[in-house]
């Protein structure tokens, strides 16, 4: 490890603490893992204590704080990948490589683990190898992977088809089917002026497509009106960190509509007067970064972006930088994302103040997701009436739906708001559907009696995840996996979420092991109410939703797990201590004590004197 190398990487990022995640990414690319020495020297170069650097690095799952193999393999552990066999294939690969739990004869060559949803749910099961996705796993492919690893073949010599990520677009609409001319929205905005653009967005009723559904025009207006202090600028941030399990629509938009996204971000900068912007790209989509960088370069070369933009209608000097996340579900929340952009742990902020007035580095900031920026550009170019001709009165436009699970055609569908769930199920080839999870684990579980409900803010708001489960699936196990996911992804900031998520997981595990009682169900409900009322952010408030939904709508799947009417401990203290008593030769003494106690009890029952 070279002090000079660490210094050069830090200096490459202008020794700015807010670029800490980028610095750690570059260091890990160089050394494969972040040793205490590397973190310590990084802190010295940035003027930050080791505890600060370690605290950030340890927060994100893609930063390796221990050595990993030359082939670092992470199997997707999303529920749909599990159903497709991801954990089975992980076990097979370990067997092929003669790796036992906790021990590997191939230390330094290969390491195998799991990660949360990789955004490849439509073509799973999937894995990441050295942060590059391989999709559509099967037993033969796993065997070939083992052979290539043993032969120490570099990834450049592996079959190229393994690394293909297909878009799987099955239904297009005004967004996916648009034939957009670069610069057309910006030219129209110059003609109309920023106030009229905001008015058009307001009339269109465009709402954020990230799940919360906040009116886009209101957010942009608030940022435009926010005062600037001490030479600050306004900032545009694209949230491309779609970590919600079962969601992958932004992956497709980034691949096929990157130019439209960049136009939407530039439009926002034009309207509010921003000087720079960021695309916060989840690390699972790192493979898309070169393509996005190319799209940015083309825009700069054509005069539509950057310091040397040549078009009169462009915001002066506005440019966009891609920043990588590092594996933290909570960073999908806009204030946690901003903390991460500033080189910190992704802990959600208290609000107010809101990002539109005090966002990135305290500057007024717009945070929208990929889909929202794309729609904003299309509305500006085509008009409010065009957009409102789709959808419902309360939910204008269309919605990209990421369909995965038990269906014959998983992938991306663009439906108008107001479309019933039953129509989506027919389109994706789902049969014998037992339940549908809308909006990911933090969303809504639908029973068959609810399949007439409609996608839209007035009924079923969603960030886009649409997971289908047929009658072969156990609804309780689905809810249990979601609960473990939340416990793993809790940022740990507040006690209710940090502790409560694990207590809920323990209760679900206890039910699964056959020790469940009615008291456990009562405690789950009481703890859920506590989490909803006291958690710091939406993650903690959503942890209990899959359990409460399935308890209410599928009680018959919980009843067989209730083995006892009253409390029954899942931990047998006497059995746990028996081996220790034998090892310390206390077993006979314990038996003598139990015999004495038995004699005393018998004497009491017959009126004897102790």
Description:
The protein is α/β, with parallel strands linked by helices. It has 6 domains: about 55 residues, no CATH class; about 100 residues, Glutaredoxin, CATH 3.40.30.10; about 200 residues, Rossmann fold (3-Layer(aba) Sandwich), CATH 3.40.50.11540; about 80 residues, Ubiquitin-like (UB roll) (Roll), CATH 3.10.20; about 90 residues, de novo design (two linked rop proteins) (Up-down Bundle); about 25 residues. It is about 45% helix and about 15% strand. It is built from 24 helices and 16 strands. The strands form 4 sheets. Strands 5-11-10-14-12-13 form a 6-stranded mixed sheet. Helix 18 packs antiparallel against helix 22. The radius of gyration is 27 Å and the shape is globular. It starts with a helix and ends in a 5-residue tail after the last helix. The C terminus is likely disordered.
**Estimated structural class:** alpha/beta
Strand arrangement within the widest β-sheet reads 5-11-10-14-12-13
The share of residues in extended strands comes to 5-15%
What gap, in angstroms, lies between the N and C termini? 73 Å
Number of strands: 16
Q: Residue share in helices? A: 40-55%
């Amino acid at each position: 490890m070279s002090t000079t190398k660490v210094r050069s990487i830090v200096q490459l990022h202008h020794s700015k603490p807010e670029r800490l995640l980028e610095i750690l990414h570059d260091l890990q690319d160089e050394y494969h893992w972040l040793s205490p020495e590397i973190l310590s020297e990084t802190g010295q170069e940035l003027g930050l204590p080791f505890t600060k650097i370690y605290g950030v690095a340890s927060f994100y799952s893609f930063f390796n704080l221990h050595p990993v193999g030359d082939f670092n393999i992470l199997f997707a552990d999303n529920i749909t990948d599990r159903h497709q066999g991801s954990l089975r294939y992980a076990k097979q690969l370990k067997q092929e490589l003669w790796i036992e739990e906790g021990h590997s004869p191939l230390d330094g060559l290969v390491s195998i683990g799991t990660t949360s949803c990789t955004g490849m749910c439509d073509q799973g099961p999937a894995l990441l190898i050295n942060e590059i996705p391989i999709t559509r796993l099967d037993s033969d492919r796993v065997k070939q992977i083992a052979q290539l690893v043993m032969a120490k073949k570099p990834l450049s010599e592996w079959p190229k088809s393994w690394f293909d990520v297909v878009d799987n677009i099955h239904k297009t609409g005004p967004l996916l089917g648009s034939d957009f001319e670069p610069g057309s929205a910006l030219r129209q905005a110059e003609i109309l002026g920023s106030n009229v653009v905001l008015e058009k967005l307001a009339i269109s009723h465009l709402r954020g497509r990230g799940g919360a559904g906040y009116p886009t025009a209101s957010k942009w207006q608030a940022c435009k009106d926010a005062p600037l202090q001490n030479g600050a600028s306004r900032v545009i941030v694209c949230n491309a960190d779609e970590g919600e399990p079962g969601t992958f629509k932004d992956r497709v938009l980034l691949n096929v509509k990157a130019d439209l996204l960049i136009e939407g971000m530039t439009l926002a900068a034009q309207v509010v007067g921003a000087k720079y912007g960021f695309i916060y790209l989840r690390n699972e989509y790192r493979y898309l970064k070169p393509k996005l960088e190319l799209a940015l370069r083309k825009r700069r070369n054509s005069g539509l972006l950057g310091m040397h933009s040549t078009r009169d209608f462009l915001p002066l000097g506005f440019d966009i930088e891609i920043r990588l996340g590092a594996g933290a579900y909570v960073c999908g929340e806009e204030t946690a994302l901003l903390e991460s952009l500033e080189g910190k742990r992704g802990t959600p902020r208290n609000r107010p103040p809101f990002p539109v007035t005090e966002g990135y580095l305290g500057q007024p900031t717009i945070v929208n997701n990929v889909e929202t920026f794309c729609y904003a550009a299309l509305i500006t170019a085509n008009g409010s009436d065009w957009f409102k001709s789709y959808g419902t009165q309360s939910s204008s436009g269309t919605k990209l739906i990421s369909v995965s699970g038990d269906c014959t055609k998983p992938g991306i569908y663009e439906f108008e708001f107001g479309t019933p769930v039953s129509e989506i199920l027919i389109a994706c080839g789902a049969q014998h559907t037992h339940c549908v999870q809308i909006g990911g684990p933090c969303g809504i579980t639908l029973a068959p009696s609810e399949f007439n409900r409609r996608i839209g803010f007035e009924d079923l708001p969603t960030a886009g995840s649409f997971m289908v489960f047929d009658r072969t699936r156990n609804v309780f196990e689905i809810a249990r996996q979601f609960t473990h996911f939340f416990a793993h992804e809790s940022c740990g900031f507040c006690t209710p979420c940090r502790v409560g998520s694990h207590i809920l997981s323990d209760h679900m595990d206890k039910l699964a092991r056959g020790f469940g009682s009615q008291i456990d169900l009562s405690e789950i409900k009481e703890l859920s109410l506590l989490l909803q009322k006291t958690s710091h952010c939406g993650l903690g408030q959503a942890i209990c939703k899959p359990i409460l939904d399935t308890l209410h709508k599928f009680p018959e799947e919980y009843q067989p797990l209730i083995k006892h009417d009253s409390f029954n401990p899942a931990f047998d203290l006497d059995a746990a201590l028996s081996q220790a008593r034998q090892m310390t030769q206390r077993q006979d003494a314990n038996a003598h004590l139990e015999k004495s106690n038995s004699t005393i009890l018998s004497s009491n029952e017959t009126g004897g004197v102790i």
